[in-house]
Design a protein that fits this description.
alpha/beta; 9 strands; TIM Barrel; Non-ribosomal Peptide Synthetase Peptidyl Carrier Protein, Chain A; 15 helices
Amino acid sequence: MPAQLPRKEVRFDPRLPWLPGVRNMLSPMAGVTDRPFREICRGLGADMGFCEFASASGLTYGGEATWKLVDTEGEEGLVGIQIFGSDPEHMASAARLLSGRRMDVLDINFGCPAKKVVKKCGGSALLADLPLLEKITRSVIAESLVPVTAKIRTGWDEESVNYQEVGLLLQELGVPWVTMHGRTRSQKFSGEADWDRIARLVETLDIPVIGNGDVVDGASYRRMVEHTRCHAVMIGRGAIGNPWIFSRMKAVDEGRDEPVVEFTEMCRVTIDHIRGEVAMRGEDQGCLVVRKHIAKCFKGYPGAAMLRRKLYATQQIDEMINILEDAARRGDPRVVQP
């Protein structure tokens, strides 16, 4: 048996008997983690996937676009829904309205740094208002039929780093795990994620901590777990155009060599992704959505810029698939690393 990565022994919530075996998760990301992408990541080794985060007010007011973000009916495998907002009544209402949805956990977003979220006092803005953060957490837990988890950052800025205080509060309120991105809100995604702080939160709490930030491959996954002893790792931007990151993490956990991703495999998965998006969104929008993944997927492939230009020049599914199939047939003798 391969040597297991060092992880702290923690207290697991009996409502989540599957959690001890979960080592990686796909993070909720706006415009990215829709159902087709979740299914691709799950097929490549993701233990759990999260929907795009949804506005509690949008769900409360019955916004059609918002409800489309939580399309989980019939979805196989572990799936979570994440909500954000600053109104405890709307957050409680969203939890109540979601009671009939297929999900394994309901996550509260206390970590989003986006200006449009924080200007309404949602996401990471709540790290600067712990009484309101507590009120929201209590209200969601009271109305949710599934366990409620939370995602945080290290603090609002370097002058108000409070992740240990927030983590202990959330643990006391009864959340079964806390996910932490190792940056402050003011950093957004600049600089480096502070894994030392993730490690300190792991030591502070009795419940599992999910690490997040700057894991982009199997090697960085190993380094984060060895550095922090976190229970699992949540992948956000590192999965865009690179769903194979989950198979790489799985290989590390199982003591195998990381799988090599060949160019033909990149083409095949991209074709599957296009088909899934078009089936869900229609041809124009579906082909457009895949572009952000294509921009990163073929990085390092000789002629990648020309391939991207060809794919960007059309929003017709047949033409995009023909371009990818032709490129795969021509192939490339070199192994392509994302």
